[in-house]
Amino acid sequence: MTEMLSYDFMQRALIAAVLVGITAPAVGIYLVQRRQALMGDGIGHVALTGVGLGFVFQTSPVWMAVLVCVLGAVVMELVRSRGNNRGDIALAMLFYGGMACGKLLVSMSAQAGSGSLESYLWGSILTVSPTDLATIGVLGAVVIAVTVGLRRQFFAICQDEEFARVTGIPVRFLNLLLAVMAAVTVTVAMRVVGLLLVSALMVVPVAAAQQLTRSFAATQAAAIALGITVAVAGVAGSYQADVPSGPAIVLLAIAVFAVFSAIAAPLARRRHRAASSAGGPAGPEVCDVLLPAQAGSVPDGARHDRSDRSDPAGSPGLAQ
């Protein structure tokens, strides 16, 4: 371990892993709640166009990917909000068109090579430069500040957009902002796990945390802790075994999910027996994330309608 930390590139790799381990689950928990777990994968396809543009114009592929991803995420959110029958077809063309365009641009650039595209598709954390690390740090700080600072508002729109709109929350703006944060997260993580695997790091730690937690705040904290753990352990393990870090991180996260799933059922039965013996409810605890609007400002009819609804996300482990 001491030998590994003596190398500058490993120090940068571990710092980048920590940053990505925080940001990916911080955004992913909202995507999971909205049943948009594959949104990160779609944005990753679009990001390849940004990487190609960076190669063609000989500028930073990361910043070009940020620009293209943000535009693509806004388009995706607008298509989703319309809810028309052709939305899936439009998104499919956007995803595959972005990937094809990226490959074409990379092949046309002067920097094209056998490893130039692979490092972005599958990640190349050991080649993270000081400039890359600074970029990841700045973008990661923005994502963390937004997703944690607006946790109540994001939770509200993920649970029930109609009720959130009644309370005065700017639903359209927050939907677009969440899509932009997902796009930024993809570009932050692409150097660590790659564009093809970034969605896994946004979803799997959240899904694993849901197996054992019973409230939104606990799930978010546990998912971030798991994200950091698997990212750092994956980087360290890949260095020792001389294997790619991106696949190692994702496979480790899936292994953690499998372990948590195995122990979730016995833990749930124990909770049920304890709640039955105490005479209390055996269901999930009350949500620990309050809406930003005052309860008195919500019309009685809207409050009654909301109280009759079950959790639309239906995610195990998250309280209603």
Automatic annotation (TrEMBL):
Residues 295-320 are annotated as: Disordered. The chain crosses the membrane at residues 12-31, 62-79, 91-113, 133-151, 163-182, 188-209, 221-241, 247-268. The keyword Transmembrane helix applies. It comes from the Bacteria. Its main location: membrane. Signal peptide: none annotated. Keywords: Membrane, Transmembrane, Transmembrane helix, Transport. CDD domains: TM_ABC_iron-siderophores_like (cd06550). It is found in: Cell membrane; Membrane. It holds the Pfam family ABC-3. It is a multi-pass membrane protein. Residues 301-311 have a biased composition (Basic and acidic residues). Belongs to the ABC-3 integral membrane protein family. This is Metal ABC transporter permease. It comes from Kitasatospora kazusensis.
